[in-house]
Amino acid sequence: MRRRIVMSMLAGVILSASTFLGAGPASAAPLADAARPAASLARSADQVADTPHDAPTGTPSGTAASGTPTGTVADTAADTAVDTPAEFGTDWHDPLTAAPPVATPATTSCAVTVAEAQFRDFTPYRGTYTPPSGCGDRWSKVALRLDGKVKGRQFDRLGYLHIGGVEILRTSTPEPSPDGIEWSVEKDVTRYSDTFRRGGDVEMLIGNVVDDTYTGVLDVKVTLTFYAEGGAVKSAATPDRVLTLQDGTLTTPRNSERIVAEVYATGSGGGCEEYWYLTVPDPAPYSCKADKGPYREVQIKVDGQLAGIAEPFPTVWTGGWSNPFLWYVIPGPRAFDIKPIEYDLTPYAGLLDDGRPHRIDVSVVGVPAGQTGWSAPVNVLVWQDAKRAHVSGALTDVRAGDLTNSSTYTPGSEERLDTAGGHRLTTAGYVDTSHGRVWTTVRRTLANTSTHRWTDGENTDALKATWTDDETVTVDGRGPVGVTRTHRTYTMDGTTTLAADDRLRTVLTLGDWAAVDGTRGGRRTTWSRLDDTYAGDATYTANVPRDQRHAVGTTSERYRLYGSDGCYDRVLVTAQGVLTRDRSDC
């Protein structure tokens, strides 16, 4: 049996749920090393070598810094003639993604630096936020921008940013080249305007380890830019309050008429829950175990009662699938802007509006008992009835179907695990508002299927998986019935092989797809379609210093977003770290 390749993505970093909620600094887990037994697919190339060498570097990053405005075409010279090297060198194009930039209006703007730090360890940056002057306190848009740079040798790391206890960003980082890389991330954070109207404490942490071996210091600056109202540009419709949990409890204003929880659920920390989609139950002979296999579901409960279910997004970090050469320029979807899961808790508004604290619990189905690796901080967005001090109501229906979770192991020269899981939940309730009784019904249906195949020693390791998360929210009252239907699909299809000559090859496709349709009185009012697809194929010689890896690889991303608000379509293509195509059009 050939030696198993050691797996790592966010190696050496465990940020607990309490840390993400601002309870204190995280602690470092031991760095993975080649002698530790672990699994295959999602590891960093730095950990597949028995001989010390320079860390595999560079990964992708941010979003909008390289964005091209919708409706324009921008082709690099590579579309006509770009010389690409025969293999990866020691430097490459700075990371970028095909995702669109944050659209901002041409109004007065005010920029505030909220964090500027160099992360060398697990000491959080702490500062104070003061609202901007000169742009009012009702903004049409608030845009966050993170600018980072790092060089030398380092793993990918996971980080967060809190203002006033509210998590406004969760992100991960590139692995640097010897010469250094720069990256940026943009995010629309207008929804947190309530938080930004008040001063508050700032806490940011990207847990890192810097020593004689791992030399990359993460140099990061984060700014918020506020865009004022002006002319035809009105202030954005945002939640009236943004709340956090206090000792695991939530107390809402007594006139809350709509309540949405958002959970930044992240599997990370150097253990198997970073690549939960690959875990197997006994007796399957694979190096990452979970009692019930790879099915995961993020649940939220109110006072112990199930209130929401969701599929977690299968994020692949930039050391993932054994092959950082996949990520040097283009990241996997969401890797640098980790989106929260949203749960419409409005059916519970009548219960929550009693002025008392209520217990809120978030858990992840399928995680082995006592095993760490998930963090799940919670923000709660609240819309209030401006004409009533107290909104009464009731929770009228909670119907949960049976949670299905089946993994079938088939032994052979190629081991195989087939998994199917799913769940259904319906919640309903009403609130008596100043504009009448309003009923809200939320229906959510989850499904996951996957086939995991591997050979002895995991020298061939493959996964094909699909996750679907369908949600329908019906609001009856205050005029014609409104219905919002959201269909989400996530896909992963990849294979890693380690040949007899230690040439490691990974071929991988990732998909993030969503369809949203809104109707009122049976007539469609809004709609959108998202299709974000990444594809990569990279090969290098494992277990040798970097200058002997002879790595080659091509990657691409196409990000398409279109609907009632317009369209955006951008394509990126790379070869050996060189950007060979950058085209944006609709």
Low-confidence parts, pLDDT < 50 over ≥5 residues?
1-40, 42-78
Share of residues in helices:
under 10%
Q: What's the tally of helices?
A: 4
How many β strands by DSSP? 31
Largest sheet: 11 strands, antiparallel
- Strand % is over 45%
Name the overall outline.
globular
**Structural class by helix and strand composition:** mainly beta
Mean pLDDT: 87
Instruction: State Rg.
Output: 24 Å
Kindly, what is the distance between the CA atoms of the first and last residues, rounded to a whole number of angstroms? 51 Å
Describe the structure concisely for a colleague.
With 586 residues, the chain is an all-beta fold. It contains 4 helices and 31 strands. Strands 21, 22, 23, 24, 25, 26, 27, 28, 29, 30 and 31 form an 11-stranded antiparallel β-sheet that branches. The protein has a 4-stranded antiparallel β-sheet with strand order 3-10-5-8, with no helix packed on it.
